[in-house]
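S.,

Sequence below, as promised.
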Amino acid sequence: MRIRRRSFGDFVKAFLAFVALAVLLVGVPGALATQIGWPLPDGVPSLDWLQQEITVHTFLNILTVIVWLAWAQFTACVLVEMKAALSGVGVPGRVPGGGPSQLLARQLVAALLLVGATAASFTPGLSQLGNSYDANQKPTVAAAQATPGLFAQQQEQASGAAAALAEQASHAAAHADAGGSTAQQGDTKFYRIQPPEGRHHDSLWEIAQRHLGDGRRYKEIFELNKDRVQPDGSKLSEASLIRPGWIMEMPGDARGGDLVEMPDEAPNVSPDVQQQISDYAQTGDHAQGAGGAQGGSGHAQGGGATQVSVPDQQRPAHGTGQQQATAVGAESDSSFGLPEALLAAPLLAAGLLGALGRRRRQALWQSAFGSVGGRRGMEPPTPTGDAQDVQDALLVGADPEGVRLLDRSLRGLAASLTEESRALPVVYAAWLSNGDLHLQLAQPAGKPPAPWQQGQDQTFWMLSRTDAERYEDVDTAAPYPGLVSLGTMDDSRLLLNLEAVPGIVSLSGREADRAAVFASVAAELATNGWSDRMTITLVGFGEDLTLLAPNRIRHLEDVEALVETMEAETRQRRGALGAAGHDSVLTGRTGPAQHTRWAPHLVLLAAQPSAEDAVKLAELAADAGRLGIGYLVGTETGDLPGAAWEMEITGQGKLLAPLLGLELDAQLLPAAQQRAVVELFVEADPERDTDGPATTPPFLVDISEQGRPAVYARLVGPYEIIGLDNPDGERSALLHEALALLLLHREGVHPRVLSSALWPRGVTDDVRSALLDRLHDWLGADPDGTPRLATDSSGRLTLAKTVVSDLDVLRSLYHEATQGKGVDSRAVRGRLLTDALVLVRGPLLADRPEGRYRWLTHEIVDAQLPLLVADTGLALCEFHMEKNRAEKAIEALNAALRTAPADERLWHELLRATHATGDTDRLTALATDLIGRSGARGLPPRTEALLDELLPTWRDAIAAVG
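The prediction came back faster than expected:
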């Protein structure tokens, strides 16, 4: 911990604050009393007083009363802030109507107390943030981060934030191994917690750093002393909550100075302290034997309730969650060469996969409607190399169900609080463990609404996966859109709420490691599924990441542009909040304008700011948590003014936050994988210029009589397989689903992608291998001995050309009719297009069982098939209209509409073909049908324009019919 020393400037600020307080508290009432006197009348005025003319004297008296009231309010604010600062009771109470007056009082009190010995107690008391409430336990002052004293409000909130996460992380340590047994009593050493000096508090991390050489060994100290009675009668229950005068037993290898003392040889302390150390030495495991006070049960003293901070991985999960977690863990041991970083980032992978799918569908529709040429009805380009590996990793690692549950849970919480007319609590972080969601509140917020439950104390709200699955979609704004994954600890995933941090979050470490963290944070914020909208400003990195979400991400060149932008936005948000009467963006998100206002703005600054710019950013960030603005700033030295939370990324992928008690396996997006992700989005960009038509399907079938396949699967409509025996029992559904996935990906399917599609919650290697063996045996081999299921050079599973689906045939027929033999022969074109439409029996896999084929949500084939059918119908319609065969054209269009009923192009051509028949009543009936299908939205403008052209009196005719 870096201790900020008092400078000459601090003394100047304290002196000026003292003068200002003296003038405002003493000078103002003195001047009023001596210069103006008592402003109120001496007696009760009569009614005639109301009709008298207002004189200058009367006006001055009214102003004097107003000044007296303002002085009284400011004095109350000073007293409230002074009491909170000196007692350390936490966030000060709000004075009604205080607003700017209380903020001014807070800043003056902070500046005054900064140089005094009592400044340490200005850090809010943390006893209410995670302490076990015993009947006789008094509030304690815990170790908190020493934030600069320039920003009193930030200092107050930051210390509470640090303690909250530190208290949560400490529970993981409570279930970790102690790292060695207690030494012999004669060799045991002890340390006495020192009283605060200035704003510096003693902490277990610092004690471990000084006397054990590694701050991360604080867990050993905690385990040695947990639940043992201290001299004041209380017990150590949280690693972040220690008191001056407490005694800590130290591991036997502790070294350093006279602060580490033997129980019988403590010459530098009083006899009373020696006796306390001697008495304390008689407690603990070495005195009581194994299974004493440090049983490690994970229960609170006396209550027996499970402590839930970082969730205890030893407890049984809900339902089969524990078995699923085991299966996932078993499978993660073999990545098959796929990027580990994305395999271990389920929320990030789900966001990227969803955004990529939307981008590809957008490109497909624009292509179909002529906005972008060259890919009508075809699949997007097949990625290769690193891009293909990254796409496979996204398919394997993504957890869309987890994203859906997280989104519904948070919105459901917001809706429940709105119904109860309660404000959203400030949430610093969330933990996901075995599907359960744990929210870390900045301060107690009362009883959570059902089905949420209170955690170990009033600062933790918990929702089990079982309860989360009961939530349905609700029409409410996303309450915490700034949550972003940072990493995992003990199989629990941490999401930090960047917009709620009271100040800057700094990140130190090597530049490449920092860049991997920044890229991961930016990518998840840009594509996550639990936010409505936000602005993400990238500075110093990630210009190419803007393609992931152009509506969310913007890139600025330098810090100067950032400061200018954020100064303007900070002023705007403060004014908007004041005009709306909201204390913070959280209260705005539960109001009438929840869907249109108060979206977060998250700033990711990877470059080291200059000293001057750092101060400006710190000033802007002082009130950022209230305004919904978050700052994550990179630093080379780890020393950044205004940093509320400080983190470090190591070369081993560990994300450390010592003062928060965090040691995470960081979530990263390394440079190579970042480039591959961007490449996927570039290829799917609907505005991207193509180098020419790319309409050739990825797999062409020999449609002649000689090309009859050995295995033929019907996927367009009900699923049928011709040429194979039906597998037995339970294996049948899995084998059919696996074959369908392989048929839709003729380029090859990674084994991990196949297994994750069939078992979204994970599966062990032996189960996957057994399935592949059965699939290989089921498909068999061609007459020449070639297996129909093979593995290519990259390890991906591929099907032989003799295994064909009707979708392959449909694509091949359309391609041959429009770009092959049908181009030069009208008769061949008509026959091929007719044969293609005959294959269409309904939507893709029309009879798929509920709960299976969920991987289709990641595919674009459900959007591609209707477009391909529509293109085929349009081409056949054009073929018939060339010979004025309107009835045949109408028949072809109706056949296509059964599979693509929403394609506006088909309806337009149907109107034209019907008009060509000359039957006005038939055209009027078709227009009436179209209006009925359009519902409340009405007809599209282009359809109305076409009807005006073909049937100018259609409105009157329809009105007469209706």
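Residues 203-231+242-248 form one domain.

Coffee later?
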